[in-house]
Amino acid sequence: MTRPTNRRLPRVLGWILAYGLLPAAAAQAEGLAAANDAATPDPGKSAAERTVVEHRVVPYETLDEIADRYGVTVKELEAWNKVLKRQPGTLKAGWELKVRARVVPPPRRKITYVVRSGDTWQEIAAKHNVPEGDLHRWNRGVARQFKAGQKLVVYTNPRPVAARKVASVEPIDPSGEGLGVSVTPRVFDVPAGGVSIGTPNRGRLSGGVQLPESDLYKVRRPEEAWGSSHTIREIQEAIAGFRDASGFDGELVIGAISLEHGGRFRPHRSHQSGRDVDIRLPKRRGADPKSNDPGDIDWDAAWKLVEAFIAQGDAEYIFLDYSRQRRLLEAAKRAGASADTIEKAIQYPRSRSTNNGVVRHAEGHLIHIHVRVQCPRDQARCES
């Protein structure tokens, strides 16, 4: 999976811990590791066995960002670099830091980017995987409303060609020993630059990315399967985690996401900014694929699907008709989910009008769930 350790990793781990999906020790290990391709050292190796790289600090970069970039900790960076000990709390552009890297991404480069017609600050930042705020700071003399032909300084932040470890959760052992965790490396190459603009009900999609065909799922209508880079990555990673955790080998159908450029998408009221995805609930073996009967749904697999999206950490809502949520809750109990996990995950048995749970009521969502992915923190024009 092409997913570098980045700024949102603490938030992902926070969700996982909050939902009781991973024991603290496993979550900590996951936070320090990223599964890499053959050219990158095993994350489980000691610091002495990792790849030693020299990192040149770019303007406005932070120690947290550098640590996340290489899959290490700030304390390790400080231990390897005396200058950080001599001047605590100080980090200057141009400093060269020694890093014993777990993840080895391509180096950051200073380039000149020539603005093209229709470009925005947000889209340029997303294209180069940098915070929009940093892009503005690197170009203080440039007007907010620039024109085509304007030259911008950009310190690129290329993503490593690496596989992110997706945690899959097994049911609680009847002996009470807790949750078992398996970790499977997956590689997804998701183009950068797909940006959500506006709200899901009144928005558009810039530089949209089309969900590719995969043996993990079936895309019902490719022309309706466009999303932001962030959303497309979330879908693939969550479904990979679901497959690993559930062992479900039946068909999983992806419905509507957004049109190529977003905007009004009849008959949907939302699906306008590339952050919404409809997924048919997994069916029992031999069940009619077109059946609306709740008894034909594999609710144990359905819970694993919901759980996988929650574990990713960026599921803002998962819509499911209230009349079906009881079956989902029962499946969660069978899987050994704790009362606290269930309370945080599912609206039922509280009123369908309450603002509780990631899984919320939406009329007509009987045989499919509607997952809404949160706005990335670095996309200022994306609105919830």
Write up what this structure looks like.
The chain is α+β, with helices and mostly antiparallel strands. It has three domains: 9-101, Membrane-bound Lytic Murein Transglycosylase D, Chain A; 110-155, LysM domain (Membrane-bound Lytic Murein Transglycosylase D, Chain A, Roll), CATH 3.10.350.10; 190-373, Muramoyl-pentapeptide Carboxypeptidase, domain 2, CATH 3.30.1380.10. The chain is 27% helix and 18% strand. The chain is built from eleven helices and 16 strands. It has helices spanning 9-18, 24-32, 63-70, 74-80, 82-86, 121-127, 132-138, 229-246, 299-312, 322-334, 339-345; strands at 51-56, 96-101, 110-114, 151-155, 164-169, 181-186, 195-199, 202-206, 209-210, 218-219, 226-227, 253-254, 276-280, 315-319, 359-360, 368-373. Helix 1 runs antiparallel to helix 2, helix 8 (229-246) crosses helix 9 (299-312) and helix 9 (299-312) crosses helix 10. It is globular and about 65 Å long. The chain starts with 8 loop residues before the first helix and ends in an 11-residue tail after the last strand. The model is unreliable at 1-48 and 161-185 (pLDDT under 50).
Comma- or semicolon-separated keywords:
384 residues; alpha+beta; Membrane-bound Lytic Murein Transglycosylase D, Chain A; Muramoyl-pentapeptide Carboxypeptidase, domain 2; 3 domains; 16 strands; globular
Brief overview, please?
The protein has 384 residues and is α+β, with helices and mostly antiparallel strands.
Biggest sheet architecture: 4 strands, mixed
Tell me, what's the shape? globular
CATH topology of the largest domain: Muramoyl-pentapeptide Carboxypeptidase, domain 2
* Biggest sheet: strand arrangement: 13-16-14-15
Query: How far is it from the N-terminal to the C-terminal residue, by CA?
Result: 27 Å
**Can you tell me the CATH class of the largest domain?**
Alpha Beta
Q: Let me know the number of strands.
A: 16
* Residue share in β-strands: 15-25%
As a whole number of angstroms, the C-alpha radius of gyration is 22 Å
Overall residue-averaged pLDDT value: 81
**SS summary, helix count:** 11
Supply the number of structural domains.
3
Helix content: 25-40%
Order of SSEs? HHEHHHEEHHEEEEEEEEHEEHEHHEE
What CATH architecture of the largest domain do you see? 2-Layer Sandwich
